[in-house]
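Subgroup meeting minutes
Present: P.N., E.W., G.H.
Scribe: E.W.

1. P.N. recapped why we're keeping a running log of single-chain structure predictions: easier to compare across weeks, and new members can see raw inputs and outputs side by side.
2. G.H. added today's entry (319 aa).
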Amino acid sequence: MKKKFVIAVDLGGTKVLTALLTRDGKIINRLKNSVIPSKSKIVKTITSSIAQLLTEAKLKSSDIAAIALGVPGTVNPEKGIIAVAPNLKLINFNIGKELKKNLKLPILIENDVNLAALGIKKFEYKDTLKNALVVFIGTGIGGALIFNKTLYRGSSFYAGEIGHMILNENGSLTSKPGKMTLEKAASRPQIVKRIKADIKNGSDSLLKDYFKQKKKIKSSALAKAVKGKDKVAIRHITDACRTIGTSLGSLTTLLNIDTIILGGGVVEAMPDFITKNIKSAFDKAVLPEPGKLTKITATKLGDDAPLYGGLSLVEEFLN
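Output recorded in log:
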């Protein structure tokens, strides 16, 4: 008898999103929980979330075909190992083995943006993407590559790590010495850090009360500041978009890709503003011939992209 359901887990830097899906692509239920960067607590949160989904749906483990887990870092999908996930402070962690102690099901591990790319390719573009780059901007910056309609993982599963591209060897874009990467220059925490520094130095901003009250500034708050014409927020977010767009221009010149798809919390909160500013910088950086063929757009799947990607990964595994 064909098992009718799949569980997809999107493990982020600050949260874990767990969903129950039918094999034909319907999301039955989803849970979002905060996550603490600890091996045991991550495993416990994922396990309890899955148990809750099954209980609420009145299902058993035997009804589930497999579990797909997306991780914000480099993974070895063949061994179920997280090689390194900096935002979760995990190195060489066999999360597949740990999860199987409580979950007697096939568990598939994949990079979170790779998983999102699979979801976008299958459920948003209906397998029409030929050569594409998927870039998610949030707590970090991650990427995934699709070449000839197939997800490209690289020789050792490290392909797509756009956030670790070095922009400046001397680190002159920051007050601290060291290599400046794209993630250090343009992820949400770095944008927030620069806004905070400006406010501390006397600049006025709609976000100043967040810092006074020590509240976390999420992407939604940044989007609200942009909508309110906050000059400080607009300047730093635009700077981040310029850095990302320039990097994407260089990558397009190198790889000759035809589609760039943006996603992640920052993009989802203000898709038009982010896409417009990234495209502006992209157009100035890319060689004209490959650049004129490249479409830049935001995914319409939002947080659901890696969940649909989990389903796609499971179907690939089962077939």
